[in-house]
Amino acid sequence: MFTTLLHNATKRIVDIFASILGLILLFPVFLVIAFLIKRESPGPVFYGGKRASKGNKTFLIWKFRTMYEAPESYKGPAVTAKADSRITPFGQWLRDTKINELPQLWNVLAGEMSIVGPRPEDWNIVQTWDKEARAEILSVRPGITSPASVIYHNEEKMLEGEDFMVRYYQHILPDKMRLDRLYVRHHSMLGDIDIILWTLATLLPRIASNRIKEGNLFGGPISRFVRFNISWFLADFLIAFFAVTLVGILWRTTGPIDLGVPKAILFALGISLLFGALNAVFGLNKVVWSRAAPEDMFGIILSSGIVTFIASSVNLISSQPVLPTPMLLLIGLVAIIGFVAARYRWRLLSGLSNFGGLRRNTFSVGERVLIAGAGEESEFTNWLLQRGNFRYAFSVIGVADDDPRKQGMRIDGNWIIGTLADIPHLAARHDIGLIIMAVSNMKKEEHDKVMNACINTGARLLLISDMMSAMQFWLTKSGKSDAPIKNNSKSVLAE
After folding, report:
1. Is the pTM of this model over 0.70?
2. Which of 132-146, 444-458, 463-477 shows the lowest mean pLDDT across its residues?
3. φ, ψ for residue 40 (rounded to 5)?
4. What DSSP assignment string belongs to 208-259?
5. Which residue has better confidence, 458 or 440?
6. DSSP per-residue codes, 132-173
7. Which of 100, 150, 258, 277 is surrounded by the fewest CB atoms within 10 Å?
8. What DSSP letter does each residue of 74-92 carry, written as one string?
């Protein structure tokens, strides 16, 4: 609760400062645009549209006017399509560059909007939404930009023909709502910075011509860099520094260390930086350690061993050794223990037998498998595929999951390589032959959409929940179990 309040307060403070700064710096630009709008066609400079805000309240969203000031402009569809006759030539340029959205900085300053948040939809369209979806999306302030805005930055070009509103209601709007709900569930300050950067990137022709993968959008470069590199690097640095300090104090009790305080501090900082940097190079910062595979722990040993070997070798060939070699070896051992303890915590340290490297597999045997979902069912799926002959018959290429915090991470020895919406792209790219649905707690409409996407890839589809139910049925029938597993699936295998 406190974390949420702190996040909301911080975001509001950032919104206020950003909107004030933006309005001041862009004021001359606003004057030029206002002059060009008035010169092109008569009418007001700004347009105010009725939108739904946080708590389903109404407000007027401000934009630069891009349509002719005529009755048909107000009576037409609430959504604009390609080659819409209501839009002026200069207005089209304003829309293509998104400059027409800049007056919404005033909405941000007034507290009606945020810089980043679900894009505010037309009031009348919002009232057609499912109550649960509407309550969730409108639980936060709408934004000038959003994940849906980035993915559908060329929405107008996607809508054409007389039935474009049907396409909008049936295909685009549901997907935008799905993206908005994902944002509400997983938004963060670092994630907002990523979305702002992606919004600016869509103005570049090369990026604008391609659809941005959701995994890259929700887990963008800024949040990934901080989560993967800064957080674990700092943790490893502090653990290594503690190891050096602890060993130094213990060693000092057995005899003098002729190094001096300044040199000792510099040495401790240097070797701690080396430990942290090499752990990052080995990808140890990209593993979800609560779901790590046994071989992941071997990476800690290998990385720390290399640092210890380098430090010991330099120390031996040096004309004036910095520290006794046994002391350096002890520092490496204590550092390894610290790294393992920090990552595994309460997990049992087990198994180095399946060591296969810390990098993604580029070569595999057996049928290529994509696991959809990274929850408990996924953990069971991965365990099952590692048993007996299954490990030779199937090769897990990766996992697709919607949680942005898991994008690019390694779980159960497998990499998260995209979101559920990326499944068609992932199946084609990695030549997937089998998709295993291991998603739990998914709403029916979302489940059906993912199922259809999987079926359309042409790969075979297996529902792990059906397999679990079949196993439970056999165990129950044989008298080995009395606790049936709930199953909501309707098919076992689909091709």
Report:
1. no
2. 463-477
3. -75, -45
4. HTSPPPHHHHHT-HHHHIIIIIIHHHHHHHHHHHHHHHHHHHHHHTTS--TT
5. 458
6. HHHHHHTTS--EEE-HHHHHTTTHHHH--STTHHHHIIIIIH
7. 258
8. HHS-SS--TT-TTB-HHHH
Query: What sections of 41-138 are H helices per DSSP?
Result: 71-75, 89-96, 104-109, 123-126, 131-137
Q: What does the alpha-carbon distance between residue 255 and residue 271 come to, in Å, rounded to a whole number?
A: 22
Res 1: pLDDT: 64
Q: What is the pLDDT of residue 299?
A: 84
The average pLDDT across 448-468 equals 80
Tokens read off for 248: 């130094």
Instruction: Give the domains, in start order, of the chain with CATH numbers.
Output: 2-212 (no CATH), 223-344 (no CATH), 367-494 (3.40.50.720)
- In terms of Cβ atoms closer than 10 Å to its own Cβ (0-12, 13-18, 19+), residue 355 is middle
Q: Are 57 and 100 in contact (CB under 8 A)?
A: no
Say how far apart CA 116 and CA 183 lie, in whole Å. Answer: 10
Render 430-486 in DSSP notation, one character per residue: TT-SEEEE---S--HHHHHHHHHHHHHTTSEEEEHHHHHHHHHHHHHHTTS---PPP
Mean pLDDT of all residues belonging to the chain: 82
| In contact, 193 and 222? CB cutoff 8 Å | yes
Answer for the pair 284, 297: CB distance below 8 angstroms, yes or no: no
**Cα gap 238→260, rounded to integer Å:** 21
Residue length, the chain? 495
The token duo for 157 is 């070009």
What pLDDT score does 379 carry? 83
How far is C-alpha 217 from the geometric centre of its chain's CA atoms? 6
